[in-house]
Fold this protein.
Amino acid sequence: MKKILIVDDSETLRTQLNKILSSAGYEVIEGENGLHGLQQFTSNQDVSLILCDVNMPEMDGLTMCERIASDASLKKPPIFMLTTESSQDMKVRGKAAGIMAWVTKPFVEEKLLKAVEKVCNG
């Protein structure tokens, strides 16, 4: 079973994504901000995909992704940013940090699930 890490400060969104992904057969773990997400990732190196928000307390999602990208000891899973942010500067910074896709909220469940399936299952 593929494992997906959801990192978002919105408990409602984490719950919604967890339900969608669990129903599709994925194991889901959660982080409530970038710092917690980084901790979850470092202790779960078998994560197949990270879904991450940008704006969060303690550590934002882009900083979390940059830390993962810069740590040679960490596996580099695909990362989807799932956010209301759509500025070109943020997207450029995200691409440099290894972000595979930028998904704007609100998202379309079927499209997100198709993208997740494509990345996780080839």
In short: The radius of gyration is 13 Å. The chain is about 45% helix and 20% strand.
